[in-house]
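pinned: reference chain
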Amino acid sequence: MTTPEIDTPETGITPGGTSGAFRDVLSKDHARRGKPPLHFVDMTPAQRIEKAAELGLPKFRVKQLANHYFGHFDVNAAEFTDFPAAKRDEAAAAFFPQLITEVTRQVADEGTTIKTLWKLFDGSLIESVLMRYPTRATLCISSQVGCGMGCPFCATGKLGLTRNMSTGEIVEQVRVAAKMMRDGEVAGGEGRLSNIVFMGMGEPMGNYNSVLSAVRQISAMPPEGFGISARNITVSTVGVVPGIKKLTAEGIPVRLAVSLHAPSDELRDELVPMNKRFNTTQVLDAAHDYWLASKRRVSIEYALMRGINDQAEHAQLLAKRLNHYGDNWAHVNPILLNPIEGSKWTASKPEDEKQFLEILHRAGITATLRDTRGQDIDGACGQLAAKER
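pinned: its structure tokens
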């Protein structure tokens, strides 16, 4: 496969093909597609004012639009009674083009888990998963169409990377879910979307600029954003070290999650191809630096696979690697591997899962077995494949 050319920063893919052993795994559909329509959240404040002026609107109208979008989750300009009737359609077309269109909605866990399949402007498909818990509502969102990381046990990774998503395409997933919660469309009645995890399709660090712009607007207070605390936003990565370092320098108190899945380079090279570019030592060093800078414990994601990475020696080595840094900087989230169709990788035995956790706890490592939601609708971690059903 030829080395992919790197796009502009706004739509760039992880520059893994430029040096080192890793190469992005590209989908057969990968191509330089046209950019999505420019949306309100893709624009700078100056661009919004300029666009309004083109429509003959004073700049205070931009704040009205922001209030509707971020404060009320509303893009139906035809019903904006505080907006000039003659300009509503023009404003909607200029600022709120439809970027994501619902294809299917699947429900699990007695209505508290909803997986939505979205079609993008170019026909690409992505998924998001909304999960309601007793004390919070969490939305798992996608940042890329497919994923170029190539992890063999992950359905999304098997798709390869088609393209990056725009900030607008990312943020629209949040707006719709926030509206669903407010309007009582999720079992349990009316509520509030409280948590965002960038753990859907894609490697967030491979689409850094769009993801960071989305984070800023999700966490800003209305009318600049949705007002979801940055402390309730999790950005996940398989270990793209330059991205972790850039995020550290931002000073935004999001939680960093590292999908480690193996305690040694030999095993992780097999499970997470990116390890050939940035090994476990580089990844853990960068993650620990994030803790030092943010004082926010890093989540270590670890999919337990039967006979592969779930034995006592794996838990002991993981504890040793984490304790090497000498402080309580990491929270391990073991999760039973969610099966994907045709895969040789299977979930751990209950006794091995129990032993793994006990070893971590005895070593002083904070570890919590992660809840698996939406497995029966292929909505759990590693199962998102954007298939029309």
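why pinned: Confidence is low (pLDDT under 50) at residues 1-14. The CA atoms of residues 161 and 242 lie 19 Å apart.
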